[in-house]
Write a structure and sequence with these properties.
- This protein has one helix at residues 31-37, and strands at 13-18, 21-26, 44-45, 52-53, 66-69, 72-76, 87-92.
- Strands 1, 2, 3, 4, 5, 6 and 7 form a seven-stranded mixed beta sheet that branches.
- The chain has 101 residues and is mainly β.
- It has one helix and seven strands, in the order ββαβββββ.
- It binds FE2/S2 (inorganic) cluster (FES).
- FE2/S2 (inorganic) cluster binds at residues 32, 55-58, 60-65, 76, 78.
């Protein structure tokens, strides 16, 4: 199970929604961290077998963390800082690069 380290410096709380569920995060966290910290066990499924995938490298290399953010698909959750009111959907299968299916 993933668990973040507690820090001494207080950071503002951010609220976002993931698949319609309200998730709390801390200002400055990446979206991948917020998702893992909230107990979400995968961010996308593969196009061929539909098997679940979760953030792995957390530095923009593996592309296992792709999600849809505010209607835009193929967003690397590990490379995006959380924002107030962000709407996140887990990504299923292949998505085209232009956001139109
Ligand atoms: S976790 Fe590897 S690219 Fe995001």
């Amino acid at each position: 199970m993933f668990r973040t380290l507690q820090t001494e410096s207080p950071r503002r709380s951010i609220t976002l929604t993931v698949e319609g569920r309200t998730v709390e995060a801390r200002e400055g966290d990446t979206l991948a961290l917020a998702l893992l910290d909230s107990g979400i066990d995968h961010t996308r499924t593969t196009p061929v077998s539909g098997s679940p995938r979760a953030p792995l490298c957390l530095m923009g290399v593996c592309f296992e963390c792709l999600v849809e953010v505010d209607g835009q698909p193929n967003i690397q959750a590990c490379m995006l800082e959380v924002g107030e009111g962000m709407r996140v959907r887990l990504q299923s299968g292949a998505r085209c690069a232009g956001g139109v299916e």
